[in-house]
Every structure is written in structure tokens, then in C-alpha cells.
Amino acid sequence: MPSDRYRAHEPGKDSRRAYLVFAVGTFAYFSAVAQRTSFGVASVDAAERFGTAASALSMFSLMQILVYAALQIPVGVLVDRFGSRVMVAAGALLMTAGQVQLALADTVGEGVAARVLVGAGDATTFVCVMRLIPAWFSALRVPPLTQFLGVVGNLGQLVSVIPFAWLLELTGWFPSFAALASLALLAAVLAATLLRNASPGVEVLNPALGLRRTGRVLRESVAEPGTRLGFWVHFTTQFAGNTFVLMWGYPYLEYAQDLSDTTISLVMTSFVVTNLAVALGLGGLSARHPHRRVRLSLGVTAVIFAAWTVLLVWPGTAPVPVVLAAVCVIAISMPASMIAFDITRSFNPARRSGTATGIVNVGGFTASVLAIFVTGFVLDVLHAAGFRDELYAPDAFRVAIAAQFLVAAAGAAGVLATVRRVRRQHGHDAA
């Protein structure tokens, strides 16, 4: 059975410099999440600006996430070779360019190209900051800091929900997206000047990682069933929250639940606060009970879709407290998805940590692409068939959201299949 080999302290780690590096990396991820989630807040304005239907509008987020997912493995390989400092700074510059492009865009094509740039820059951030944690901190501190990174990073959603939404309403499209571009530029400057790949005297890069060796590392990572288990856990747990916050949460709350802008902001803020409240507890459970990680992730997924079921079967619009409670449950998907990285780290050596993390991170965003697309597709099909006069009719949303249950079922099947392989190879208590 693999072990996380938790130790209280390792020489050269857990220093003040380590916490400075972690703080800069966390800010870079915070900025990336703000860039990532901004379009979900602006989706109604975007529909008016670009004059497009639901499935075409979903292409903005779909292409962003597709690029993000497609780049995870290449980014994992590149960070193993070039280090986090270069990759995080470069990613922040790409997001700066993407938000400037979106601020100026007048057509769907220009807007989608902008979100592609944002997705590419976002892709370089999380995996590369994650790589800094075991390089700068002792093993006992890695799972809680991993959860803390996810929590504080996801607070970037608050930038979208509150100041960005307020600025969008007050000043319009260009100034609001230009402001987000300036935040990304600040992250690029801080990463370039303050990030370091590891503590002094510790070599974590693999500069000899050529094409042939890259292929071998990739094959080894994929061949490890623990990596595949991490992929499916991430696939299953993350997409519900991702789909909600990146694309369909705002339209659903506005049209299906008939909430005011003020109430929507409250609900979305509660989504983020729930991440903060739950994440550190999940991180502690994951660290203390590694053999229960899979059961924990499947249990969270079941609770999330039970909450969705309550909203979908509620006659008419649900009371605000019920909506608020359900959205807070859906929000648990974000910190729960971090368990996947604890799983894969337990089965992969440090020399291929970036590659393995990249593979795992593809999972949740692949599921998000499927869920975002199927929701928009069902809405358009129902509208074209005359199911309701309005595109975003409440009854249409019930059917479209229910289609996401198929994605969850596929993910759960993947988890159950791969956990059996892990236990056969590493022992029953391995996961």
C-alpha cells in the first residue's frame, strides 16, 4: 500500500520564504479563478451583446474549458521541466490578453477567441501552484495547504460575483473586463518577481525531460491506477459546482427561480463562503483517513445531486432559503474535488507529480464541458420544439439540469471501476 509518509517537519521546508511563495501562488490562482468565472456573471449581458442563443452562448465557456482541459497534461510536463515561476507568470499574461480581447470583442468569434486565451492562461496556474506546495512544505502540511489553496483561490469567484458584477452594471462591458485584465497583470508581475520553484539547494526541475522521456513519464502516470482513480474522482465531484458557477448558475437563478440581482449575489456569495467553511475540514479528513477518500467523494456527490433533486421537483419556484441551502450543498463539489489530488499524490513520485496532477485535473473540466454543453443543448432543443415560448423557461431548465445526472452516473461508474484496480494492485486499504 502506498503511503503519504507524513512527517512533522523536513529540513529546509516550512520557512517564512515558503509561506511568501505560497501566498504569491495563491494570489495568482485567486486571480485566475476571477478570470475563469467572470463570463458566467456576464452571460446575460453577453447574450444581448453578441445576439446569440443558449447553445452558441455556451461555446464561450465550452471552448475556454476545452482548452483548459486539453492543456493540463502538456502544462504538467512543461512545469516538470521549466518550473512554476515561468509557467504561472506566462499564464497570467495570457489571461491579461484574453480579458483585453473580450473587452474589445464585438462578434461571437472574437469573444470565443478571448475565452480561449483565458482558458490557456488559467490552465497553467493551478497545476503549477500545486507543484510548489510539496516543494516548499513538509508532507504533513501538504493536504491542508492544498485545500487552503483551493479555498482562497475559489474566493476569486467573489471578485466576479460582487465588484465585477457591480462594475458591469455601473460602467458597462469594456471597463469591467479591463479591470479584470489589470488584476491578471498584477499576478503576472508578482509571479515573475517573487515565485521560486523550490527552497534553496533543492532541485525539483527535470531539464533533461525530452520528448522520449516525456512520453515515458506520461505512460507511467497513466499506467498507475491511482492516477486514473484521481481522474475519475475529480470528474465526478467537481463538475456540478463548475457548471453552476461558470455558466448556468446565474441564468438558472434569474429565470428558473425568479430571484432578483441582489438575491442572486447573496446566493453566489454563499456558494463561495461554503467553499471556505467546508474545505479545511475535508482536507483534514483526507489527510487523516486516506483509505476513506473514495467513499467520501462519492458520498459528497450523492448529497449534491440530492440537493439538485429537491430544486428540480419543487413545484414552481422554491423558497429562497431552500435555494440557498441547495446551492451551498452544490458548492461542496469544489473543495471535494481536491481529494483527487491527495489520491494521485499518494501513488506517484515527485518526479512526475506535475504530469500526474495535470492528468487528474483534466477529469473535472472534461465533465464540466459535457455538463455545460448538454444543458445548453437541451434548452435549445426544447425551445425549438415549442416546449415553452421562452428559452430559459423554468420547466425547460428542470429537464436541462436533470441531464447532468447522466454525467454524474458516468463518473461514479469510472470511480467504482478504477478503485477496484487500485485495491487489487496496492491492497484493499489503498483507497
UniProtKB/TrEMBL annotation:
Xref: SUPFAM superfamilies: MFS general substrate transporter
Coiled coil: none
GO cellular component: plasma membrane
Domain of life, source organism: Bacteria
Protein name (Swiss-Prot/TrEMBL): MFS transporter
Pfam families: MFS_1 (PF07690)
One Gene Ontology MF term: transmembrane transporter activity
InterPro entries reported for this sequence: MFS, MFS_dom, MFS_trans_sf
Spans traversing the lipid bilayer: 20-38, 50-70, 82-100, 112-133, 145-167, 173-195, 229-250, 262-282, 294-314, 320-343, 355-379, 399-419
PANTHER family registered for this protein in UniProt: BLR6921 PROTEIN, MAJOR FACILITATOR SUPERFAMILY MULTIDRUG TRANSPORTER MFSC
Segments forming domain Major facilitator superfamily (MFS) profile: 18-426
Subcellular location: Cell membrane
Lineage of producing organism: Bacteria, Bacillati, Actinomycetota, Actinomycetes, Micrococcales
Membrane topology of the entry: Multi-pass membrane protein
Keyword Transmembrane helix belongs to the record: yes
The entry's keywords: Cell membrane, Membrane, Transmembrane, Transmembrane helix, Transport
